[in-house]
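All the exercises in this workshop are built on plain-text protein records. A learned vocabulary of local backbone shapes supplies the integers on the structure line. Once this layout is familiar, the rest of the handout is easier to follow. An example says more than a description, so a record of this kind follows:
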Amino acid sequence: MRRTVLQALLALVALMGGPALGDAPARQVFLVQDSGWMEPFLTAGGSQFRPLVEALVDAARVQGGEVAIASFDQDGQVPGRTSPRILYDGPYEATRVRAAITAIDLPRKAGSSAYADADFNGALLGAIRTGLRRRDGVIWMVTNNKNAPGNSAEVERNTAAFYAALRDSAAISRIVAYPVRMPLKGRNFSEGGFVVYGIGYGAGGGRALAAAVGSPGLKALFSHPPVSLKPVLASGLTLRFDRLDTGGLQAALENGVLVVRGADAAAGTALRLTAHLHNGLYPQRVAGARLDLRWSEVGAEAGLARAAVSPAEIADLAPQAESGPLAVVLSLPPIPRPNGLAGLLSDRRDVDGTLTLRLADLRLALEPAFLERVRPIFGSGLFAGDQMTGQLGDANAVEGRLPGLFRDYRGVSEAAVSLPVRIEVAFSPWPLVVASAGALMLVGGAGLGAAAANRAKSHTVMLGAFPKRATLRPYRAQVFRAPDGSRWQVRAGLWGPARATRVQEPGPGA
């Protein structure tokens, strides 16, 4: 029930806010937990916690964008202040950001010496309402993932429902995490590290978070890639093709499209490429998967080509690593020339389609080196059922202590990598040459006929018993008078002698 209510609240806040105005940079809120379990980071001598948060704000900021710095605990526990508590809100200014982060303290409960507890649910909703002003943006939550063990069952259930809603709510479009090892000992507690969560609220917030994750600033700040928690495959799997330039065929990647040139339409084409699968995920490795390559074509002749890949399986592909060579064959049968004059004038045809590599029976597993690195960071779970089993050094036990979002990869059983392809197939020029030659002959013959029809020639024609020499143009009649006074109409053709026909004289009464 609580999970459903929280999802409804997130959706309601999204509807009340709507998309960000214009093209203004998305706002960013930096939430720092200030409850009791954060004591070593905030009080230990030589702690680099505050400098790291300051560097995080600097690395993630966007030119012209606004930031809000806030701390959070549990609203209502600390007299005179709310949670989250906004310490600075406005354009990025290094001195003001530093002052706000320096002001983060460890508040105590009303009438008690005990430190305040943490309410992640209230912190997130408060950050959306106040920090993001109910608009798309990014929330950076810095926490050690711990609740006080004395919290009520109501608080524990609320926290578990909050993280479950984070996973399922459409309003939260993207979540990443940076586990940070920082072993410190305070007066009361010792901690091994904390986690920086990046939460993209709304579609615009998801895009802004993706841009921040890929920025040089965050890549330089953290020594390891972020863990993509939602969606799990956001970092993705990609295909890289080696360049082909053999047998008259050329293939190269142009603006994300594999363009193949030199294919023969009449003979068909068997395009052979070497591909490599890149695992952009972290910290998941591809433990195993079956590979299937398919071709889908745009247009009426869909399915014209056939694709195959070898080997048909892949295993043990580490995070951020590239597979061994994959042999890809794309077979294109002969392509008929289009009908009509347009087809006759065509010298090539572009075949557009998509190569899709499907990974079926996909099994992902967390990299052992990652589990070893985060082992000191994660203590008690934030989720119902996240209990430690076995020995601490056992990989399964360490993974069991991770928040549930870190284990959502177990629900991924398939993936697909697609690449648009354009094949430029050339038609033989001979039909066009023959047709052009025939057309030229017809035009030439017509021209010669027209010239002959207009050329005058000398003819000797008999006007009765009298010969007459005359210059005549074909098919144009002329009238001549013979020495005896008779009149004759003379007509010549293109070939042969001219012919004379006597013109009857009108009678006396006519």
